[in-house]
Amino acid sequence: MTRHEAVQSIVAGREGSTRDNAISYAPANIALCKYWGKRNAELNLPVNSSVSVSLRDKGTHTQLTRSQRNQLTINEQEISEDDKAFVRLFDFLGLFCQDPLRVETRSTIPIAAGLASSASAFASMTLALNKLQDWQLTDKEMSMLARLGSGSASRSIYNGFVEWHAGSLDDGMDSFAERLDVEWPEFRIGVLTISESEKPVGSREGMNRTVAESALYRAWPDVAARDLRDIREAIVVKDFELLGACAESNAMSMHGTMLGCRPPLLYWRPDSVSTLEQIWHLRSEGLPVYATMDAGPNIKLLFLENAENEVKSALPDLQSIAPFTDSNT
Ligand code: PMV
């Protein structure tokens, strides 16, 4: 099945009264159990299920307006037609809508925080298209459509803790995300920027190379299945230490699979290692703080509100995000 056929199987026959423009917002998300490896690259169908937490007011605002020609602005800057972001975005929009569109996106993710904005961008685009075309899609349908832009975008349709079910069908109709019914107002994500420079190998390429080249990847599906079960359980019973330990181990296992590539794939910088050591030292002294990392050198911390002051004084550059409350610092 092609991406276009996947879209048609969801939106065909849905056209309602169309509008001239629509706005929407979707949050970025951080995976606690990572999506790593595709069983179908065309449809972004994952090998394993994953769990994330959405970053509430850190994400992407999108406005779509019917226009004479395709246009894109990101944070009020006009993007040229040959830019990678322009090509990728209109390739995605072209799956849904033949009319030219003016797309204005604005990110509330701190610049250079090392947080992927593609998840919130594709999720926000899908939500805006649904409004523009008046399709009245369900969240589950929008999650499947956002997945076609970027796998992790399937989770950015929701706030809070989110599980993306890998599914097993060839057409991906059982591969969508759902929100877990848990509120955890004390939960915090801390972001530490280690490097602002663009990654030499993007997550898509890193994932594909690992699956193709690393013998260690064969262990990953079982590791991820175990971690997913434990992380889901830890979230439901609010066992922070179990959640932190499993999420950290899951991220380290993912990076371990990358080291088995030829040549090895290593996203870490020297400061990533020294920061991890600092976090492990704080923990050995009794502070419950854990780390997770994605396909890049930056570090995200997991801790609870009652540890926030201590974590911030040990790591002054930390940006703290409260995914369940509006009073972010
Ligand atoms: O959705 P993508 O193609 O940007 O891949 C995301 C991969 C990781 O960030 C490493 C893990 C995840 O689950 O978000």
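^ PMV complex. The chain has a mean pLDDT of 95. The chain is about 35% helix and 20% strand.
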